[in-house]
Amino acid sequence: MRVLLVGGGGREHALALGLAGDPSVEALVAAPGNPGIAAVAELREVNSVDPAAVAALAVDTAADLVVIGPEAPLVAGVADAVRAKGVPVFGPSAEAARLEGSKAFAKDVMTAAGVPTAGAYTCTDPESVRKALDEFGAPYVVKNDGLAAGKGVVVTDDRTVAEAHAAECGRVVIEEYLAGPEVSLFVVTDGEAALPLLPAQDFKRVGDGDTGPNTGGMGAYAPLPWAPPGLVDEVMRDVVHPTLAELRRRGTPFAGLLYVGLAITAAGPRVIEFNARFGDPETQVVLALLETPLAGLLHAAATGALAAHPPLRWRDGAAVTVVVAAEGYPASPRTGDPITGADRPGVIHAGTRRDADGTLRSAGGRVLCGTATGADLAAARDSAYDLVRGIELAGSHHRTDIAAAAVEGRITIPG
Ligand code: AMP
Ligand code: GLY
Q1: Would the pLDDT of 292 be above 70?
Q2: Which residue of 57, 59, 207, 313 could cross-link 291, Cys pair, CB 3.0 to 4.6 Å?
């Protein structure tokens, strides 16, 4: 089949490697792609949030499957426009993508579906903000209601910071704080049938020991040696199937990748957030372990044929990815610096570009990821850090503790 992949970050590089490795894929086009993706796909220019432009490109490239990576095109209705041309697309409609696009919508669906999540209020004025903060107490969780590329959430003990974030956002969701280790569970679904991928853990804060501001994600690992047995089955039963059923009931079925962000609390798994697409950088580790051909899986979800898909197959061992971020990330990343040491297997490109003379340069906040598999988590972690040590980018920084607590058996569920 011919596949068009929309997007150009680290997640899309990982998706491109998976799609290119599927023997059923005869041609892979990526738009806009990045220099890493260019090694396995033909790159085309496109404004990825312009539904008509992406739909036209799908027709022009004779795509049998369009895979949409990032959230912005989904929320803009790109999947709807591609589907309207009769081309199978992996990615939800704009209406269903509101599960990610609006925190308030997601809470409404969860309440209707009886999904376990943090108590929350949607607030638009300082008075209701103060009331909600009083009720839940510290630590305060204040979320921008709209899309904020993973950076619209403030978790803080500082009341002034919490109120200032609420004032800056306008419309916010204020939540009860959920204590416990976090899990990202990706579920491939055609709206009815649903197949979970391996659970992964992401590192949202910029600094070692979960310090500093939230980012899009600084590293990840999979699988989770500390996860309770039965976790995935429980989340499928209590979260995924009720949510999919509620969206079907509303006439807006969710087909694509349902990303369930969870906290494993003393009372059990609680949903922190839904996303409508693969997570970044968790995708880098989850797909590194997936043995089942990726294009066939996503095509089955895109065509309502997932119930007939064989069970997923996984490689033994573990995978770790470590993000190399630009100086100043996340507040104000510096771009345009030359990079060396990136042309090695396992180095995933996120925010990079290549000059006409071949020089690779930083072009975003999260620049590259060192991704490795190993017989166990410790071996995968060592190899991922070897890759990172080989990358030179002036002013760059990375976390040194990705997967460390899991390797050392230091992750516990409150109880
Ligand atoms: P979100 O964009 O909703 O995933 O939030 C980003 C990060 O903020 C999450 O990965 C958590 O680390 C943290 N967070 C969000 N909501 C809560 C909550 N209710 N309790 C504790 N931490 C949270
Ligand atoms: N890694 C978090 C996200 O993709 O939103």
Answers
A1: yes
A2: 313
Q: What are the tokens at 21?
A: 């490795």
Q: How confident is the model at residue 149 (pLDDT cuts 50, 70, 90)?
A: low
What pLDDT, on the 0 to 100 scale, is given for residue 152? 82
Best mutation site among 147, 151, 153, 270 for ligand 1 pocket (most ligand atoms within 8 Å of CB): 153
Q: What percent of the chain has pLDDT over 90?
A: 95
Which H or E run contains 209?
none
272 alpha carbon – ligand 1 mean position (Å): 6
For residue 286, what are its two tokens?
């989850």
Residue whose CA is closest, atom 3 of ligand 2? 279
Class of the 179-308 domain?
Answer: alpha beta
Averaged confidence pLDDT in the chain: 96
Residues 188, 178: Cα–Cα separation, whole Å: 26
Our answer on whether the CB atom of 141 is closer than 6 Å to any ligand 1 atom is yes
User: Do you know the residue count of the chain?
Assistant: 415
CATH 3.40.50.20 fits 2-90, yes or no: yes
| Domain 125-170 part of CATH 3.30.1490.20 | yes
CA 230 – CA 179 distance, rounded (Å)? 20
Global pTM value:
0.95
Choose among 73, 64, 55, 61: nearest CA to 8.
73
Q: Which atom of ligand 1 is found nearest the CA of 118?
A: 19
Rounded mean pLDDT, 18-39: 98
* Residue 280 Cβ contacting ligand 1 at under 6 Å: no
* CATH 3.40.1160.10 matches 318-407: no
Nearest to 12 by CA among 224, 203, 284, 267: 284
- 3-class secondary structure, 344: coil
**Chain center to CA of 262:** 13
Per the CB < 8 A criterion, the answer to whether 287 and 15 are in contact is yes
Nearest CA to ligand 2 atom 4: 279
* Residue 391 confidence (pLDDT): 98
Tell me the pLDDT tens digit for each residue of 164-175.
999 999 889 999
Q: What count of Cα atoms within 13 Å lies in the side-chain half-sphere of residue 192?
A: 10
CB of 275 shorter than 6 A to ligand 2: yes
Task: Pick the ligand that lies closest to the CA of residue 271.
Answer: 1
Domain ranges of the chain: 2-90, 125-170, 179-308, 318-407
Among all chains, which residue has been given the structure tokens 């002036």? 394
